[in-house]
Amino acid sequence: MRVHIADHPLITHKLTVLRDQRTPSPVFRQLTEELVTLLAYEATRNVRVAPVEIQTPVTTTMGVRIDEPRPIVVPILRAGLGMLEGMVKLLPTAEVGFLGMVRDEETLQPTTYAERLPTDLSDRQCFVLDPMLATGGSLGAAMEFLFERGAQDITAICLLGTPEGIAKIDEQVGDRDVTLVLGARDERLNERGYIVPGLGDAGDRLYGTV
Ligand code: U5P
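YS: structure for the whole thing
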């Protein structure tokens, strides 16, 4: 598995404001969108393109366009929804699928409660969005779901991850083609499954349900 951890002062600056508990939901949503657009730049580095000939005002030349079949963006509900706009801003032709996962706060086990995805993902590049890679249970289950639909090329974008979560996904995916793009790797998980220092519950902070 390839892991890319952002190393850019603008990303760290925006993450710092996001982490601050005084940051209100509207600002939190705006910053999440901006951060995802910055991370999406790295995450789409290997997006498939096809050669295309165009005519400039001066001459004909070769360029590229995003190849068919279109990539698919999969936000994991609910918190991943806050990342969707930032992603499709950079990849406007992508198809969007949905996967609803909920984590039992006692057992920390994820279950799927909703899905809207094509049945065959075998030649689609999949971009999964979930702001927090904590235990790795939710993202791992989401990836398993996509693998079962035939996905062979998955990139996940998370704002924050833990060493524990990264290790779990790495072990789970084995030698399959998976890339993780993270805004930062935080210190650890706490006993309640929260990322430390983290930013709290991303869904609550995005949607003001604190
Ligand atoms: N989560 C947070 N903040 C944390 C830890 C987890 O919001 O500090 C939520 C995220 O919404 C994410 C899910 O979708 O839990 C991931 O948890 P896990 O399955 O990786 O443990």
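YS: worth flagging: The radius of gyration is 17 Å.
IM: good catch. Also The chain has a mean pLDDT of 96.
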